[in-house]
């Protein structure tokens, strides 16, 4: 299969308007971050009890999309499936951008940006996942750059080696992110299954996003892509979605089974707005409906329905990130097991949190930066192939 890659022209009015929109979003986010840093994070929805907000939700979400996007490039780079080579460059570039977006979301969440570039890199502690993860994130970006260079220069041996390293590193990155929550954290976080659950959700959301980007970009730029390639990715997405549902079921069954965690389980499943997101946004819209679409013969082989299922999975995993990060903070911590606190300088009970306008602007700003870089990259780098055709059966899911 003869594959040639090229740039888009990027001279149309629509292209320039899109860049302008992304630039405006980035500017709005920068202004919002400046105001938050000047006035203090009290102007956001965060408090002493809820020190993480929308930006941390988005950071975890972006890091998952980054790890999941590399799955598509791994089909070619690691497993040698030549029919997926047309998508490899774009997948690696997107993975790198989303990891940058995750880091930017973390940075814009801080009240002291002047300390961010020093503290995590000078005071290293192997017993702290917060200390380990910056090395994983920065290492992942470096690996993606080398991976892209190997793909651009068509160095097959180096591509396979770096692709395997990137594939494994991506799993480590998201396992480390899940470990921040799952290893010795608060009651609603602590679970040895949480890192694996994070990885499963990352693979599902990353695959779904790449399906949307492939179908959309190939259609906009009038490039041909064989339906069989998208259909097989849809089947892979169905398996990933099923695995996500399995992990969620086991985690919540564990909480319901352990006596000490039953109160937390009830709060998680039936405790308010986050419970609505869990049942309706995640379990029904984000997982249940896509599984029905993808496993049904009539809809699972139609591109438009695979696109619909992918949109729902991307939305569902965003809900999943929210219901992991926020409920664990708003749920009252058990500071002294078996004892009752009669007086405290902190307000006891369930904490409240609502997303502020400043946080929304910050999130849009990060999205604007990576959106601008992606659209600009399509014009500067040879990321898109002339076509994507199948050279034989894609083979079984891996």
Can you give a write-up of this model?
With about 400 residues, the chain is an all-alpha fold. It has two domains: about 200 residues, Formate dehydrogenase/DMSO reductase fold; about 130 residues. It is about 70% helix and about 0% strand. It is built from 14 helices and four strands. The strands form two sheets. It has a two-stranded antiparallel sheet with strand order 1-3. A two-stranded parallel sheet has the order 2-4. It starts with a strand and ends in a 10-residue tail after the last strand. The C terminus is likely disordered.
Could you give a quick summary of the protein structure above?
The chain is mainly alpha-helical and about 400 residues long.
Distance between the termini: 22 Å
Strand order of the largest sheet: 1-3
Largest sheet: 2 strands, antiparallel
Helix percentage range: 55-70%
Q: Low-confidence segments, ≥5 residues, pLDDT <50?
A: 392-398
Instruction: Indicate the mean pLDDT.
Output: 84
List the keywords:
single chain, mainly alpha, Formate dehydrogenase/DMSO reductase fold, 2 domains, two-stranded antiparallel sheet
């Amino acid at each position: 299969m003869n594959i040639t890659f090229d740039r888009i022209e990027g001279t149309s009015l629509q292209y320039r308007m899109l860049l302008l929109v992304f630039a405006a979003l980035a500017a709005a986010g920068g202004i919002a971050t400046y105001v938050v840093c000047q006035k203090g994070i009290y102007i956001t929805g965060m408090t002493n009890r809820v020190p993480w907000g929308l930006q941390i939700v988005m950071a975890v979400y972006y890091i998952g999309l980054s790890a999941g996007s590399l799955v598509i490039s791994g089909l070619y780079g690691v497993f040698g499936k030549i029919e997926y080579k047309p998508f490899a460059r774009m997948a690696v570039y997107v993975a790198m951008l989303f990891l940058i977006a995750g880091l930017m979301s973390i940075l814009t969440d801080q009240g002291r940006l002047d300390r961010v570039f020093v503290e995590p890199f000078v005071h290293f502690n192997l017993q702290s996942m917060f200390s380990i993860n910056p090395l994983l994130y920065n290492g992942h970006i470096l690996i993606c750059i080398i991976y892209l260079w190997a793909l651009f220069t068509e160095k097959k041996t180096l591509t396979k080696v770096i692709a395997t390293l990137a594939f494994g590193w991506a799993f480590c990155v998201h396992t480390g992110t899940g470990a921040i929550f799952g290893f010795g954290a608060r009651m609603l976080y602590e679970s040895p299954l949480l890192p694996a659950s994070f990885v499963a959700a990352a693979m599902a959301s990353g695959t779904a996003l790449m399906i949307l980007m492939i179908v959309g970009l190939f259609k906009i730029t009038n490039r041909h892509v064989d339906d069989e390639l998208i259909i097989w990715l849809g089947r892979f997405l169905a398996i990933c979605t099923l695995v996500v549902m399995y992990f969620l079921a086991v985690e919540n069954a564990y909480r319901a089974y352990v006596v000490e965690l039953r109160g937390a389980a009830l709060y998680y499943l039936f405790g308010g707005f986050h419970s609505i997101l869990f049942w309706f946004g995640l379990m029904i819209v984000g997982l249940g409906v896509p599984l029905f679409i993808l496993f049904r013969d009539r809809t699972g082989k139609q591109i438009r329905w695979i696109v619909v299922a992918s949109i729902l999975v991307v939305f569902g995993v965003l809900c999943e990130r929210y219901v992991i990060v926020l409920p664990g903070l708003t749920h009252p911590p058990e500071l002294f097991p078996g004892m009752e606190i009669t007086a405290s300088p902190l307000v006891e009970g369930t904490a409240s949190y609502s997303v502020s306008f400043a946080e929304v602007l910050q999130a849009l700003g990060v999205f604007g930066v990576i959106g601008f870089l992606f659209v600009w990259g399509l014009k500067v780098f040879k990321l898109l192939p002339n076509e994507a055709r199948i050279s034989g059966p894609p083979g079984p899911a891996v």
